[in-house]
Amino acid sequence: MNRQFICHSETPVVETDRGKVRGYVCNQLFIFKGIPYARARRFHAPEPVKPWEGVFDATSYGYVCPLMEQEKPSGELLIPHRYWLMDENCQNLNVWTPGCDGEKRPVLVWIHGGGFRAGSAIEHIAYDGENMCRTGQVVVVSVNHRLNVLGYCDLSDFGEEYANSGNAGTDDLVAALKWIHENIAKFGGDPENVTLFGQSGGGAKITALLQTPAADGLYAKGINMSGVIGPLLADSRGSGREMAEAVMKELNINDVKELETVSYHRLSDACRKVSPALEKEGKYVGGTPHPNEFYRGVPEVAGFRKETAHIPLLVGTVYGEFTSFVPTPYDKHRMSVEEGKAKVEEVLGKEAAEQLLPLFEKAYPERNPVDLLTLDFLFRSPASAYIRQRSALNQCTWSYFFNQDMPVDRGRTPWHCADIPYVFHNTELVPVTWQEGVTEKLEKQIFESVMAFARTGNPNNAAVPQWPASTPDKEQTMIFDSQTRLRCNHDAELMPVFEKYMGPVFAKSREAIMEDVQH
Fold it and tell me: Which residue among the candidates 142, 200, 275, 391 is catalytic per the annotation?
């Protein structure tokens, strides 16, 4: 490829509904960063940005939402990160496009992870949209929005102006989708063919948008990656009054209006101080969506809204999720099958091993039995239930499972976020994905499935076996690994028994897992 860079006063400039924006051209791609899609007062609904004169410089990423805790450097080998300047005025988005022309390309909108509490549109190195845009000839958009106490703090008891403060972050996403619907055609995208895709908290936000009437008609499809997490990211319940009053007491203020202007640092510190006691009593502490007229609640409780039943979804999880972040104290590649079975019996006991090992071998015949100890159920079981519930409404719900071991410790089972580089066609940016004879083929299979789904709402393509949609009785799961294949109900017998024995083990570390999910 011949290197190319263009950025001057006339090119590339796009006229949006708020004014002109200038990005830059890099190797035949048009790139725009930090475009504001809305503004908002703290705890209030987003409003359209006031039109500007002149040309907005969209050559730098915009602010990301402030975090409630200082991040700690760790796990960079597994998930390379980058961090950015933080400010409450974080309603901005980034666009990668092959051309600002009249073409109607599929649009993929990335919604970042980090629960509803942390993260950003650029947090992972693998979130970069350039390779997806170029290889797939699609328009890629990534979105920043309000999080934590700024995005999900219910103050509705204090007046109508705060009626939806418990969902302000989701309201920002709706505003972003409206901006995309109104403007993306000028960036070479099709506003009627928008696919939401997100991982972890990003997948949970896609579910929240499905349950949000204001988002109807602003997207056509969704890809939910490890974003069905059951009780770990359940809706906030009850009134936020007690929490708000406790925060005001901590801050020595008397009027809720003062919460709008106190420094974010003081506000977040106060929230962190008062939340543990309230949470221990089962009281509202915020941090997740709050059911109301704007947001109808998680489908496990409220059911899927019939108005979005026709939306195709691609839903999946990763083999180990958070369990695989922890290095194992044994080397499975030097273990025989019998030694693997013995280790399972040592850890879980004879009764559990006798019941689980035959079911594990049936579900994962390619694996050493010791891999049972890093198998996830906190994500997988809720995701399967979600797929069954969703597929009862339509014939356009697809299931996938990322099963490829990674070249750490001579083959660690894949962890939460391990599939992201393949989806973005960004394995070249993440060295831990590099495996000779595997990476290129697997990346093509996953990427082509994502592109097919973005174009048509069906992931079938020439790179993978025939892939039927799931039904309530048959979860048709594409197992992505070095031997990608379709399996029907492959772990349906295993999961209930596995959860029975591993549930108590995982319960001891649930708080730590929740903290990791949110970061």
Answer: 200
